[in-house]
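User: Show me a protein chain along with its predicted structure.
Assistant: Here is one chain, sequence first, then structure tokens.
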Amino acid sequence: MLNLNRLSKEITTGLILFVFAFSATAQKGTIKGVVSSNSGPLINASIIVDGSNVGTTTNNNGEYSFTVSAGAYNLSISYVGYQTQIIKATVKPNETITVNATLSAGVSDKEIVVVGSRGGGRTKLSSPVPVDVISVSEMISDLGQVDLNQILNFIAPSFQSSKQTVADGTDHLDPAQLRGLGTDQVLVLINGKRQHQSALVNVNGTVNRGQVSTDLSVIPATSIERIEILRDGASAQYGSDAIAGVINIILKKETGLLEASSSYGMYISKYPKNYALYKLLGKNDDPDVSVTDGNTFHASLGYGFNIGKGYLTLSGEYINREKTNRTGTFTGAVYPSVNGVNK
């Protein structure tokens, strides 16, 4: 026998669910558009709704389309090497809106690169060879490094510099390389003028033995506005000391501004007290030893003066780095055993 009351309830429930689903669908809208640059459409550009994980990427024609709930949004449109754009968009129910974006290159056209050019100033965008433009002032606080060699080591792909030990004077002057070539084949310029190389010859087991290099550590990192690194040989223009490339250091020009900074850091390590015995016998009941070393203190001060039509900038930097020891506790024999007995 047909139960009319039950059938009525099921029909009513079904209608409510249908109306709810229709209402939810009706609250949706679509955002579409094209992302391009001055040279054409950008493939795989990212379009993200700020504050969420809703978004999509562009296809081979630079086009995109995705559905969102009705409301007002900020669209973050980005692409590697280009400046991110934030565009406001308001979507109404069942509405499709078009949001197009033309992204600009990540380096301003006003930023001039002088290394590697034979004529007038050339921007990074039109340079036929790879040039890295690095804003050092923005990197110091982000990287936690105080030495110019180590700062460049972290952010420049073709630059390599490592600290040496038991290497005579090279302990105090870190050899710097570009593209894996010799340290005396890297030309360092300061405001476009050649910086003299050091008189120290790298000896013992150091990097690039028998060569000399430029001491970058004598230049306070806080006095530098930006660094241009020409990641290609330029020996035809600058000579044999530019076979590996050119590093052009541009100093700050601000006047009437006092700049001061300081930082402090250290290494904290823990290891078992009898480390060798622990490794050999698997003992782990010895208390841990906590070691603090590599303490580094950095302080800098700089001020620029107006002098007629020019300027004078005075900068000073103090760095004190304590020794770092990663050897642990040695528990073996100092001398070879005699008749099976350790001396």
